[in-house]
Design brief:
- The protein has 15 helices and 16 strands.
- It is of the alpha+beta class.
- Strand 12, helix 12 and strand 13 form a beta-alpha-beta unit.
- The relative contact order is 0.12.
- The chain binds histidyl-adenosine monophosphate.
- The site of histidyl-adenosine monophosphate has 25 residues, from strand 6, strand 10, strand 11 and helix 11.
Length: 425
């Protein structure tokens, strides 16, 4: 075999230079959801194929053409998870987490869909998702949306807007589907290939079409909002009222239907106009029938998932500053004695200052070459230790990002001096 190996198309490495932004996004979301009482759950990345077929729906794009499905050595059909909701429900039912109790759960990790890769759309991508079980009222829907709004604030994101819709009950949707199919069949020749195909399989998804001509056909189509049952309508109106009271702006979009079959009633998407065609950064809704459908007791449920690649890209496009992950100190210690004492000194500093990021120079070399590496590391200060300094139990502290003098600090004073320099005192 020759040539270098490359990552699988649509599956990205996240390199260290980007990790700080990822961690900022992940930490920001995690701290907000934990403030709302959510607890983490971790599910396997691989599940039985049947789980996704049953929950996401046989005639959805995901199940029809995007799943990474394979037979394992026992002949079982397994699938890399394309999303987290199905596995989360499976885990809750399997472990009895829904017996006489509500749950607020969050999870994160990679998801896999064999889509056509493009900016913001990958074959492996990361989500942070939340799922709430046990509440059927609009209050929890509203609180989830308040929580997402708080997340945008925590991340400093501005260019996102909320689209909201109600899908009503499955009976309401079935009646609507019949009428929509009737209307669109009469307009068949004006539809694009994709919509023609969907007319037979999943007609509601045609509402999502990005094709301008299809959208023009839809302008005169029946509207789902006219078919919604009274209870769902009341639920939706109450939700809108709660959002108004919380000053959360939204647009009701009667064409928002979502690509997974398990939804009913509330559905929503947070969309940005800064990301091109893949502008949805967070999406979710209610799925009150799924728990029972997967073998649990009837349990109302609602949740959402955020796409982390898209949030990171949005932060970049908004010019948010990159969080500082550079080391505070780089220890320059030429010579055997200084090297040995330097390692011990760095350990002591780590004991005393848990926030300190310190790199010790490894691999020897001259003072000059070590100092050059210190500079290249991006560290704020070099800590310089030679044989003479070791004897005197002091080290030189030399600023690397500004032009000022080195100061000598006694080992016993070093932690206090650093704490004051970095504002930790
Ligand atoms: P989804 O709309 O399929 O919903 O995905 C949620 C989010 O994941 C999207 O809005 C997007 O940000 C991101 N995403 C999806 N596909 C890709 C991709 N190929 N590349 C990059 N990012 C992507 C769900 O997955 C539901 N499980 C959400 C949910 C949770 N509903 C209720 N609870």
């Amino acid at each position: 075999m020759s040539g270098t190996l490359q990552a699988v198309r649509g599956m990205n490495d996240i390199l260290p230079e980007h990790a700080a932004r990822w961690q900022f996004v992940e930490d920001g979301i995690r701290s907000v959801v934990e403030a709302y009482g959510f607890r983490e759950i971790r599910m396997p990345i691989v599940e039985k194929t049947e789980l996704f077929k049953r929950s996401i729906g046989e005639v959805t794009d995901i199940v029809e053409k995007e799943m990474y499905t394979f037979e394992d050595r026992n002949g079982d059909s397994l699938t890399l998870r394309p999303e987290g909701t199905a596995g989360c429900v499976r885990a809750c039912v399997e472990h009895g987490l829904l017996h006489n109790q509500a749950q607020r759960l969050w999870y994160t990790g990679p998801m896999f869909r064999h889509e056509r890769p493009q900016k913001g759309r990958y074959r492996q991508f990361y989500q942070i998702g939340v799922e709430v079980f046990g509440f059927d009222g609009p209050d929890i829907d509203a609180e989830l949306l308040m929580m997402t709004a708080r997340i945008w604030k925590a991340l400093g994101l501005q260019h996102v807007s909320l689209q909201l819709n109600s899908l009503g009950t499955s009976e309401a949707r079935a009646r609507y589907r019949d009428d929509l199919v009737g209307y669109l069949s009469a307009q068949f020749e004006r539809l694009d290939e994709d919509s023609k195909r969907r007319l037979a399989t999943n007609p509601l998804r045609i509402l999502d079409s990005k094709n301008a001509q299809v959208q023009a056909v839809l302008d005169a189509a029946p509207s789902l909002s006219d078919y919604i049952d009274d209870a769902s309508k009341q639920h939706f109106e109450a939700l809108c009222g709660l959002l108004d009271a919380a000053d959360i702006r939204y647009e009701v979009n009667p064409r928002l239907v979502r690509g997974l079959d398990y939804y009913g009633r509330t559905v929503f998407e947070w969309v940005s106009d800064r990301l091109g065609a893949q502008g949805t950064v967070c999406a979710g809704g209610r799925y009150d029938a799924l728990v029972e459908f997967l073998g649990g007791r009837p349990t109302p449920a609602v949740g959402f998932a955020m796409g982390l690649e898209r949030l990171v890209a949005l932060l970049e496009s908004e010019g948010a500053p990159v969080p500082d992950s550079a080391p505070h100190l780089y220890l320059v210690a030429p010579g055997t004695l200084a090297q040995q004492q330097g390692l011990l000194l760095a350990e002591r500093l780590r004991d005393l200052l848990p926030q300190l990021r310190v790199i010790t120079h490894c691999g020897g070399g001259s003072f000059k070459s070590q100092f050059r590496k210190a500079d290249r590391s991006g560290a704020r200060y070099a800590l310089v230790l030679g044989e003479e300094e070791v004897q005197k139990r002091e080290a030189g502290l030399k600023p690397l990002r500004e032009n000022s003098e080195q100061e000598m600090v006694h080992f016993d004073q070093l932690a206090a001096r650093l704490a004051s320099l970095f504002g930790w005192a």
